[in-house]
Design brief:
Length: about 525
């Protein structure tokens, strides 16, 4: 069986070969950790964004959208704490000259202990079969007990160092755990230093009069500075939310794992404004709501887990991540945070404007508290692609590469194929496309054998292939082939739109979240 690393390499290659993701500026040898979405990738990405945005604004009458500018007044970032505190702890290996995030190195070490524990459990489960008692095994097996103790001690020490912002202790942990550089294999480390992640540029006509501005490192502040505008013009009553999809920029030193960590990325964020004192109740509600949104896609419930933060941001009183099982382990896809009234209070203080809500029920004004849900479009894209990518052994001994994408997210919904390029079949196929194209994104393909055409569509995740043959001209029926099962059935052209719509509509995805 191929290793997860091999699967990931194949996935990255597949993304390029089939027009999902290209390295940016590739003809100039690319730009580190920046990617372009190709003709298939942009369709999948847009469908993910639509699924998120419509779930927020259609299913919740008290959530509205905005689209704030990327450039913001520089005081915004002073107020939000980004100028002073938006840092990553970095460490260099003196031999490889490579730079790493100290916290990530330690998190990977914790994951290694988890893998060792899992390995021991799997070995024992195989050995003892149905009589295997995992809880008993944890209590009695000396090797597992040792790994659990090491993991828990490291976790406790790491969490304390992060909360204390103790850079020397982070380095000491790396030394004590004998963590080596993946490239040089040595433990020759520099001290840990803080590095600010914001990109800056200048705005203005002349060098003397130019003002230093930043490319936003998150989209949330655009929502906070517009809180009053939206609340007043929309006559919004608390609790209510503001949703936004937009680009953000971070000068990531350790950008890697394809589109998982990039310097230019896209976020889908919703800030939900609530009455102080109710925030933790809403935090729990949004945790469950967001998990349902993910699970409704059917990528596998076991692939998700919550991971509570060891270190809370200075403004938060609760924070958790929804992690998804990527080919390189469980990784954060979405963050849910209780941000208290930090942001609105800070902007009120720095702007001199009163940012409050008058609550007619209690006849008083207050600064709302905020629950944030923040999801990376690119990470979501990667998790969908990773879950969908499959190499299947067929009964005839062949292998097919298929993307089992949720049909609602698939870039192309149907491919219409004339059996041969003559006898009026291409004309009939194009007639069918002209009827379907108002509702579904379709492709036309007449090149190569039907089998090869099926494989091409499997590789981009198209749910339906529709073949027009000589009988079609007489009986107005076509053969429809289902991607996942490869089953074929004869159906009337008049029923095509209905059959496709039942499978690719987002309506069921929305309904599944409300169950």
């Amino acid at each position: 069986m191929a290793s997860q690393e091999d699967v990931f390499k194949k996935l990255v290659a597949h993304c390029k070969e089939y027009g999902f993701v290209f390295p940016s500026s590739e003809i100039y040898d690319g730009l580190g950790a920046v990617y372009d979405y190709g003709q298939m990738g942009v369709e999948l990405k847009n469908n993910i964004k639509k699924y998120w945005y419509d779930s927020m604004t259609l299913l919740h009458e008290n959530i509205v959208g905005i689209d704030a500018a990327i450039f913001m007044h520089p005081t915004t970032w002073k107020a939000s704490g980004h100028v002073d505190a938006f840092n990553d702890p970095l460490i260099d290996n003196k031999d490889s000259k490579k730079r790493y995030r100290a916290d990530v190195l330690i998190e990977e070490q914790i994951a290694k202990y988890e893998e060792k524990i899992e390995k021991e459990c799997n070995k024992a489960a195989k050995k003892f079969g149905d009589s295997f008692d995992k809880a008993m095994f944890f209590e009695t097996n000396s090797r597992v007990k040792e790994y659990v103790t090491k993991k828990e001690n490291l976790h406790t020490r790491f969490a304390k160092a992060l909360n204390d912002n103790d850079l020397a202790e982070l380095k000491q942990i790396i030394i004590d755990e004998e963590i080596v550089c993946p490239i040089s294999g040595t433990k020759n480390w520099t001290d840990v230093r803080q590095f600010n992640l914001m990109f800056s540029t200048e705005m203005g006509a002349s060098a003397d009069g130019a003002m230093k501005v930043y490319l936003r490192p998150e989209t949330a502040q655009g929502i906070f500075v517009n809180y009053l505008n939206v609340q007043k013009t929309g006559r919004m009553k608390i609790p209510f939310g503001i949703a936004q999809i937009g680009k953000a920029f971070r000068n990531e030193i350790v950008a890697r794992q394809f589109v998982f960590r990039m310097r230019e990325f896209e976020q889908m964020e919703m800030q939900f404004f609530v009455k102080p004192g109710t925030e933790l109740e809403w935090f729990d509600k949004w945790k469950q709501t967001r998990l349902k949104w993910h699970k409704a896609l059917g990528l596998g419930d076991h692939k998700y887990r919550f991971h509570d933060h060891d270190k809370l941001a200075h403004y938060a009183n609760a924070a958790t991540d929804i992690e998804f099982e990527m080919p390189f382990g469980f990784k954060e896809v979405e963050g849910i945070h209780s941000r208290t009234d930090f942001d609105l209070s800070q902007h009120s203080k720095y702007s001199g404007k009163k940012i409050e809500y008058f609550d007619p029920e209690i006849n008083q004004s207050y600064t709302p508290y905020v629950i944030e849900t923040s999801i990376g479009v690119d990470r979501m894209f990667l998790s969908v692609m990773a879950a969908a990518y499959n190499e299947e052994q067929l009964e005839n001994g062949e292998t097919r590469v298929v993307l089992n994408l949720p049909p609602a997210l698939a870039p192309i919904k149907a491919c219409i194929m004339p059996l041969v390029k003559k006898d009026g079949l291409p004309e009939k196929a194009k007639e069918i496309i002209n009827d379907l194209k108002f509702d579904f994104r379709c492709q036309y393909d007449e090149k190569d054998s039907i089998g090869k055409r099926y494989r091409r569509q499997d590789a981009i995740g198209t749910p339906f292939c529709i073949t027009v043959d000589h009988d079609t001209l007489n009986d107005n029926c076509v053969t429809i082939r289902h991607r996942d099962t490869m089953l074929q059935e004869r159906v009337s052209i008049a029923n095509l739109a209905n059959i496709i719509n039942q499978k690719v509509s987002m309506k069921d995805l929305f309904k599944n979240q409300l169950i």
